[in-house]
Amino acid sequence: NVAEDIDISRIVTDEMERNKPRENKPKTLDGDQIMELLERSKGSKIHVMLCFNVLMGNRRSEIIAHKYSDVDYLNRTLRVEKQLGRPLRAKKEDYAPKMLTKQERKLKSERSYRTLKIPDYVFEAILAERAKYEANRRRRSTTFQDLDYICCSSYGRPRGKDFHYVHYKKLLAECGLPNIRWHDLRATFCTLLVENKFSPKAISKLLGNSTIVAQDFYTDTQRLIADCIPEMEEYYNEILPDDAHMEEIGELTDVVIELGDIFPENKQDNT
Predict the structure, then answer these.
(1) Which residues of the chain register pLDDT less than 50?
(2) 148: helix, coil or strand?
(3) Burial class, 99, CB count within 10 angstroms (exposed 0-12 / middle 13-18 / buried 19+)
(4) Which of 97, 105, 225, 264 is the residue whose CA sits 20 to 30 A from 175?
(5) What is the CB-side half-sphere exposure of residue 19 using CA atoms within 13 A?
(6) Are β-strands 77-80 and 103-105 bridged in parallel, bridged antiparallel, or unpaired?
(7) Distances (CA, A) of 24 to 56, 59, 183, 190, 262
């Protein structure tokens, strides 16, 4: 009998384990936690990287590709027009040491090419990085690689896509913050936009997505609405794009969807 060789109890146990409710861990940070992380990161090697991620929603491959020449200092905007990564069918011997995965590549889609307003907090971080860049260029005049990357080593070489990991995890632990992924900071940025009633199309434009952003993927529905308290208004006004910038996006702001329509389960909490 074939059934005699089947461990029924094991099958039942495995099925119960798969269907067991998952632990409800936070996947984003709230405003106070963001500022704690950013302030504690000042002076670290990833402060400006954190700014580009959680305050502007940039992807990690975009962040390490940003150059000072991408910044419009007069209008305080940033052109996102490339990423760093490994070229297709690339051979290690064809590139300089440690540079195989740091080659400039096209972005994921046409919509990924975008110009973003730089919040004051991020702009100050960029200026601070530029001061260090110039100091290192003068100090290491014969060995410095003047490649113009904002996120770079003291020798001017661009950072790798995983450079942030150890520094980021250490910061989370020091701040006593949830052990969320680097990508979850991008979700945090998206959640802030949803909380402030940006339309899905506008959010997709800011994130550089080729399709309308799926809020259930990018946002933390457990904390939506709850964080919209008066004490946070100044913070939101500082980091979020203003009305003038959103007008530049044009038709993307024409579609405004209420949070209750996007998240029906939260509708009662907002009354």
Answers:
(1) 2, 214-217, 221-233, 249-271
(2) coil
(3) middle
(4) 225
(5) 6
(6) unpaired
(7) 26, 25, 18, 19, 21
3-class SS at 62?
helix
CA distances to 89, 104, 224 from 215, in Å: 35, 30, 11
Q: Residues 219, 118, 170, CA angle at the centre, nearest 5°?
A: 60
Distance separating alpha carbons of residues 183 and 233, to the nearest angstrom: 25
Residues shown for the chain: 271
> Which residue, 153, 156, 227, 240, is CA-closest to 198?
240
Q: Which residue has the tokens 């099925």?
A: 15
pLDDT of residue 16: 59
Burial 154-166 (b: 16+ CB within 10 A, else e): eebbbbbbebbee
121, 239 contact by CB (below 8 A)? yes
Q: Is 260 within 8 Å of 270 (Cβ atoms)?
A: yes
